[in-house]
Amino acid sequence: MKNAIVLAAGKGTRMHSDTPKVLHMVCQKPMVAHIVDNLKAAGAEKIVTVVGYGHEMVELAMEGQCEFALQEPQLGSGHAVMMAASLQNDDGLTLVVNGDCPCVRPETYAMLYDALGKCDMAVLTAHYDDADMYGRVVRACDGTIEKIVEYKDCTEDEKMIHDINTGIYAFRNQELFAGLKELKNDNAQHEYYITDLVEILKAQGKIVKAISACDPEEAQGINDCVQLAAANRYLQNRINTEWMQKGVTMINPDSTYIGPDVTFGSDVILYPNVYIYGKTEIGNHVTVYPQSLMVNAKIGSNTVINASEITDSEVKNDCQIGPYAHFRMNSVIEDKNRIGNFVEFKNVKFGTDSRCAHLTYLGDSDIGSKVNIGCGVITVNYDGGHKFHTTVKDGAFIGSNCNLIAPLTVGENSVVAAGSTATGDVPDGDMAIGRVRQINKPGYGKEYLDRNRRKK
Ligand code: UD1
Ligand code: CA
Predict the structure, then answer these.
(1) What does pTM read for this prediction?
(2) Largest Cα–Cα distance in the chain?
(3) Ligand 1 atom 11: the closest Cα is on which residue?
């Protein structure tokens, strides 16, 4: 059985933030969620996240995605691992992963599980020209790993070492929990360091191996907002490069922002300043113009999105969206639609080949196919306490500047005349007119203007 323990109890003091460090976002996904998802992709079946500072927030963000163990107070990374006691009787393999290194690839985690075929403990290491405050990996003459020394405990000579501990380790589970019993906190920070397990296992005659990360940058840890920005840049560049290699065109990859769980079909063109996050799926032959934001959106094929925001909603094929459309809360736009120039949909089903081209709010509505929604239509769906539903059936025509006061149904091929406030159902084929009748006062317009303009 493959297990993993993610260390996520620290506050992250150097972030100077009330949010627990592991909930800070990299490519718009919390650090800890990157790690848990990538561990699963590497085959981890049971994942225990050790939480402490702000644990309610972390548990809420990661609900249903892993198990949790509480560490209070936080007495160091070794102490944190002890809290994952629910694993202690398992005899599988266990990875221990710092919660602040979100860029590690699944392949790297898999490599560490595999390393246990040839050793008893594996440490993922990296070579950094600027080893900064990372723990240093001290090697024996034969190149095997001797010990890990925390920066604060380093001698001047040890500070010159460029091999660093990434904070990712693999153990046989039983040996891990046996070793933890021997940890002591006699160091500069008076903490229980997981890194001391290197010497503890070696003293038992066990083999400890250093495994170098193929790409040293993937193991970068995040302790402050400067490192957070660096990790964002690195991961964004990696994600964008992978998609360009698969055929996505980016006019300027440096200003194209894509989350790790987004997917694209073929012949997608992304203009600068687009933000595509969450579990968004984009189909084939889609163009996204600047200033568009999509989160958990599904976009069909041959659709164009221009300067629009789409959240938790779907736009199907052959649609033209925007500029300035906003779809949210499970809206579904069927094929061949043109929607945009300041249009908001909330929880709307919008049928095939309909139009809603200007200045409109639709909420909690079912709109049929071949419907025309004129300029400035509003569904009045909220009375201050409750939300009400609007239905507009196939072929209906809603004139410009109408209020549809929900609940109501506008029947098939019926019309609501421009400027109307419709307060009730409109039967199929009927026309509803609900507005004040016009009166013309002969000559009064000019007289009125002459009088008022003279006053100036
Ligand atoms: C740690 C390593 C260091 C390594 C570096 C890599 C130790 C002692 N040091 O240092 O060798 O080079 O990571 O990035 O492990 N945590 C807990 N409970 C605690 C303490 C920490 O859950 O009591 C968690 C933190 O939330 C964090 C992770 O462990 O996600 C690492 O802690 P951090 O304080 O960032 O360790 P570093 O000083 O970076
Ligand atoms: Ca760290």
Answers:
(1) 0.95
(2) 108
(3) 135
